[in-house]
UniProtKB/TrEMBL annotation:
Catalytic center residues: 67
Binding site for Ca(2+) 1: 68, 73, 75, 77, 89
Compartments, as annotated in UniProt: Secreted
Residues at which substrate binds: 162
This protein's name: Peroxidase
SUPFAM superfamilies reported for this sequence: Heme-dependent peroxidases
Plant heme peroxidase family profile domain location: 26-321
Any single Gene Ontology cellular-component annotation: extracellular region
Amino acid sequence: MAFYNLLSFFPLVLFILSGARFSVRGLSMGYYGMRCPFAENIVKNTVNDALQADPTLAAGLLRMHFHDCFIEGCDGSVLLDSTKDNKAEKDSPANLSLRGYEIIDDAKEQIEKQCPGVVSCADILAMAARDAVFWAGGPVYGIPKGRKDGTRSKIEDTRNLPPPFFNSSELITMFGQHGFSVQEMVVLSGGHTLGVARCSSFKNRLSKFDSTRDVDPTLDSDIATKLIKTCNAGDNAEAPFDETRNSFDNSYFNALQSKAGLLSSDQTLFTSPRTRNIVNGYAMNQARFFFDFQQAMVKMGLLDVKEGKKGEVRLNCRQIN
Ligand code: HEM
Ligand SMILES: *[C@@H]1O[C@H](CO)[C@@H](O)[C@H](O)[C@H]1NC(C)=O
Ligand SMILES: *[C@@H]1O[C@H](CO)[C@@H](O)[C@H](O)[C@H]1NC(C)=O
């Protein structure tokens, strides 16, 4: 009997432990509840207004948060502008056409008016990415808050971002270094259900632009023909990852099944026996994709967060205080 009682408390104990883990890091779901009660609403309304005007920016916000977290942790470093003496992450060629900075600036300005010096840029970006996913039709989920902003943003750190020509083993290794499982790497790649890539990111797969190799055999030949046409317009011409670039859905995984993945790093997830079944699972079951995606996003949002005195709350997201 006593044993059963203990067991029935087990979920509660786990819950308390996981809560404690967050608060050890200084993060919690209700972090701004007392400190700045409207912060979360301001971000949501700002994101909704901006996406109403330009739905393609949902992709920009999601990608910006990913880049922020993979370089030096989720500390808003991706938002910093270069200065006279420092070339910031932003100015890397890998910066990749990051988009949506104005939305963060706008939310920050409104929040500063209500609660000066309280809400970090890293948190605003994390909330904005979350709201963008929901706006585009994806899952809704809560994220712990209380990140502080970092003071370092170096162009050379961007080499920690995965390049588009990585194969699945290389992706597994790189995401593994950040503590992600194979399944989490695949589900996070599902972020490519939103947005576009430029020809410079995928022309390696089109023989016309790279005479050292034939058209990538894992790319459908009709699609290759179409992409070559697109890329005749130059390196900055864009192609969508899937047929619904502004909808957060599982059509990205369906595209991989029909050899329509855009980047090498997308298609490799289906080509490789190590990840193919995971792709098939998400292609078949969108609810499963949504569920795993939100969990992996919460985890990504906790990468090397700076809490307490390890960082600051920037007054302007583009420069350190
Ligand atoms: C798995 C490794 C990944 C690689 C190699 C990769 C690479 C890329 C590349 C090359 C682009 C296009 C850049 C351009 O040509 O302008 C891109 C776009 C994008 N990435 Fe990733 N990415 C990866 C993972 C992720 C993750 C984990 C997320 C978010 C959860 C994400 C979200 C996005 C989004 C939303 C876009 C579209 C941006 C837009 O339309 O403005 N990516 N990615
Ligand atoms: C990205 O990097 C290129 C240089 O490689 C630069 O010209 C461009 O302005 C940068 N984009 C952003 C948004 O900073
Ligand atoms: C992935 O790329 C690495 C480095 O180029 C190579 O050693 C490895 O064999 C490749 N793996 C697969 C499965 O193609």
